[in-house]
Amino acid sequence: MPLNVTLVSAEAELWTGEASLVVAKTVEGEIGFMAGHEPVLAILASGQVRITGADGAKVVADASDGFISVEEDVVTIFAGHATLVA
């Protein structure tokens, strides 16, 4: 079962879709999420968010000033500033 992921900045929704893996930098270190992960609410640190889509495609964004929420295979990344880089 894939993760349902949404990546948004203050300006726009940057990416939404199904993913097998999400890796993000938080103030406590880098953390990865796969289906079945326990609920998490973490402060997003400046750095990359890397998403591996359910089809294997890679999405990379530079993000800062926000938080990441994980609950019931739904990952939502809210960033004050974010841009897609790949």
TrEMBL record:
Coiled-coil annotated spans: none
Lineage top rank: taxon: Bacteria
GO cellular component, one term: plasma membrane
Record-linked Gene3D superfamilies: F0F1 ATP synthase delta/epsilon subunit, N-terminal
Keywords carried by this UniProt record: ATP synthesis, CF(1), Ion transport, Membrane, Transport
Matching InterPro entries: ATP_synth_F1_dsu/esu, ATP_synth_F1_dsu/esu_N, ATPsynth_dsu/esu_N
Residue ranges of domain ATP synthase F1 complex delta/epsilon subunit N-terminal in the record: 3-82
Membrane topology: Peripheral membrane protein
Subcellular location: Cell membrane
Entry-linked SUPFAM superfamilies: Epsilon subunit of F1F0-ATP synthase N-terminal domain (SSF51344)
Chief localisation class: membrane
Molecular function as annotated in GO: proton-transporting ATP synthase activity, rotational mechanism
Database matches in CDD domains: F1-ATPase_delta
Similarity comment text for this entry: Belongs to the ATPase epsilon chain family.
Official protein name in the record: ATP synthase epsilon chain
Taxonomy of the source species: Bacteria, Bacillati, Actinomycetota, Actinomycetes, Micrococcales
Gene: atpC
